[in-house]
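job 3f2a | input accepted
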Amino acid sequence: MSTSPQPAAFTDLRPEQILDALEAVGLRGDGRLLQLNSFENRVFQVHLESSEVVVVKFYRPGRWTDEQILEEHQFALELQAQDIPVVAPLTLHATAEGNARVAGPANLTEGESGCASADGPGGTLAFWGPGPSPWRFSVSPRKSGRAPELEDPEVVRWIGRFLARLHTLGAGGRFAHRPELSPQTLGRTPQRWLSGHADIPPTQQAAWESASRRALDRVQALFDTVADVTMLRLHGDAHPGNILWRPEGPHVVDLDDARTGPAVQDLWMLLPGDSDGAQRHLRWLLEGYESIRDFDDRELRLIEPLRTLRMIHHSAWIAQRWVDPAFPAAFPHFGTAAYWSEQTGQLLEQLERMQT
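job 3f2a | predicted structure (356 res):
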């Protein structure tokens, strides 16, 4: 490859740059690339000359620190070592001529800067490109699968057992750098950011701010009632799209949102929207889960608070990435008076649900 590794805009990674970055860690693509669905990062399926197929993830600048990414990798490798089916990153080796360096979970330090070292024989996080802000990427094997059939009770019980195994391992360690799920991190902070930075139409701002503050007050009150529940390392974003089904059962992809929190965070997004269906699916999930690990039923009080936090955080997530062309294309309704009116209505509905 002859392309100079000059970073392009994150929103416009060129195929030749992707192939050059991979070659810098000893992986030669054969030219076949496919961009995969991902708003947060840039993710590509790449065929290698070795006939292997890998998935390369370029991390969005400014989202996670190097230490936080490496903690995600460490968690995935711990799960893999215990035969808990996850897609873990490969160990990469920088080539002498490739203008790349690598760091691995073992390189994490607890110093003031917390800077991950690039020394050592290999690592899971690669840095490629000149200057102080090179691209950061990881590579994992491609693992295909289909969506789980969540109307099948045995499939849901199996997922419950799988999540219980993940949580058992998650409870055995801690994250030093990745954030904790709380009303502050997923609620108050994004709510304040939206109030001060988002272009909320004047006709809607006061109503949305009032509804969001009232809803977050109730969220905090409910979290306070279960303040002593166990907090553990989680997948963090265990919705059906991040759980794939293979002949041997479920496996998870995308630990990008891994964080510390209550176990119920990895359960509630698997429940359907209707009340009867949610209760049925929750029963199936817990039947599987509790065959492996105890579940604190008090955490069920947090399902609606967690849903409320996700709503507010999601609005801030879109607003903070609006300069990325993928976001206006995917969320054309965002930012309109109708959008904020709908958000206000939904928050008031959540407030009613949390009062019951």
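job 3f2a | The two ends are 62 Å apart (CA to CA).
job 3f2a | closed
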